[in-house]
Amino acid sequence: MVTLGEILKQRSSWSKEEEKLIEKAYNYAQKAHEDEERFSGEPYFNHLTETAKNLVDLDADAMTVAAGLLHDVIEDAKMKPNEVRKLFGDEILFLIDGVTKLGKLRYRGMERHAESLRKPLIATAKDIRVIMIKLADRLHNMQTLEHVPARKRKRIAQETLQIYAPIANRLGMGQVKGKLEDLAFPYIHPKKYKEVKELRQKKSKENIEDLTKVSKRLKKELAKEKIRILKSDYRIKHLYSLFKKLEKYDMNIERVYDIAALRIIVENVSDCYKTLGIIHGLWKPLPGRIKDYIASPKINGYQSLHTTVFTGDGSIVEIQIRTSEMHEEAEYGVAAHSTYKEHGSIPKVDETLSWVSKLIPFYNSEDDLDKNDTETPDWLKEISVLQQDVEKPEEFIKNLKEDFFEDRVFVFTPKGDVIDLPKGATPIDFAYSIHSEIGNHLSGAKIDGKLSSIDKPLENGDIVEIITSKKVMATRKWLESSKTTLARRKIKSVLQSNEK
Ligand code: MN
Known about the structure:
Low-confidence stretches: 108-113, 338-394, 396-406
Distance between the termini: 72 Å
Radius of gyration: 25 Å
Bound molecules: manganese (II) ion
Structural class: alpha+beta
Mean pLDDT: 81
Strand content: 5-15%
Oligomer: single chain
Helix content: 40-55%
C-alpha cells in the first residue's frame, strides 16, 4: 500500500498547508472506504492512494492530489456532498463531481463513435484537473484489470484505447498515453501483443548495442565543441505504438528504426541544432527522416529534433535531441504547465487557446499528429479566425467558454455522428457546424423524422436532418435564433456581402 509519507515524499516543494490538505484527504478517504474491497480482494483504499501517486507522477498540484484521494467518496462510499464541501471546500467538491460525472458517460457503439465521444467527455469535464484525475484513476484500473470479471475486461480496455489514451495524447501526456495503451493492448489483441513484445525484446537489444557505440562517439565530439549534455538515455518504443507502426509496414520489423532511440537533452535550442549538425557530420542521415519538431511542433505541443542515421557498419539508428523544457512537455503535456495550477481552469487567452487547441480533434497514432502531413483541421482554423474577429480578450474567452464549456447538447446526424452544440442551439447552428454552405442554404429541418422550425432549440439525443435549397439565403432574423459564434459569424458575413 502507498503510505501518506510516500505520497508526500515524492514532492519536496509542497508547503505545510498543502501537506496538511493531502493528509486530511488521505485520512478521510481511508475512513470512508473502510469496508470496501476491490475485485482483487485488497482494500478499496489502495485504489485511492495509487491514483494519488499517479497524480503526483503527473506533477499535479496538491488540491488535485487531494481530490484524487477523494474521487470515489461520493459515488462509492456514499458520503454526502455537503459534508465533503464543509470539510474540503467548493473546489474539491467540484473536481470530485466532475470525475463522478465522467464515470457515468456511457459509450455504446464505441467503435463507431469513439472519435466524436471524446469531445463530450472533455466538455463534461470542464476543467483540465478533472481529466487528470480521471486519467490517473483509469491508469490504476488498467493496472488491476486482470482482477475484473472477464466479460468486462475487453470493454474497459477498448474504452481506454479509444477514449482515454487519445485524450492523454491530445493533452501531450506522452507517458500516460503510452502506459494506457500498453496496458490495454493484451486484452484487445492477445496474440499480437505477445508477438510484438518478443520482437521488441530481441530487436531493442541489437538496437541498443548500435546506439551505445554511436553515443560514445557523439559524446566525445560534443565535448570537443563544448556542448553540454544534461542527460542522455535510450527510449524504448512503447509496445502498442510499435504495433501500430508495424501494421503500417506489413509487420516488417526491419523497416522500423526507432525501437530504441538515443535521446539527448541539451541546454538550449541553439545547442539542439548544433548537435544535429555534428551528428550529420559524423554519420549520413537517411533522406526524408530529419524531423524538425522545434520549428514545427506537433499539434499537441511536442517539440524535438529527430534524425535517423546510417552508422557505417550496416545499422540504422534514430537520435532525438531536445531541451529539458521540451522533454518535460513531451512527458507531461498540459500537466507540465504551471498556469492551470494557479488559475484552475481558464486563465489568459494564450493559455486558453493553447489548451483548448489540444482538445480536439483527436488522432490515434503519434504519426498522425505530425502537423506537416496533416492539414490544419477546420475547427482550429475557426478558432484562429474567431480570435481575430474579436478585439477584446474577455469577449473572446466568454465566447470560447460558451462554445466549449457551458452546458452542451449532443445531437446526431442521420448517419449517427455526434455534433455537440451549446445549450439552446438550433438547427441553424447545427447546419453551420456541418458546413457553411449547408448553413447558408438551410430551408428546413427534421428532428427525429418530424418537420420542425429552424429556430427550435435542440435537445440531447435529437437526430437532426437538414433540408437545403439553393434559393434560400441567410437572413438577419437567423442571428436571433443562433447560439454558436461560428453560425453568427457566417451569417454576418453573408449579410455583409449582400449589402455591398
Ligand atoms: Mn476510481
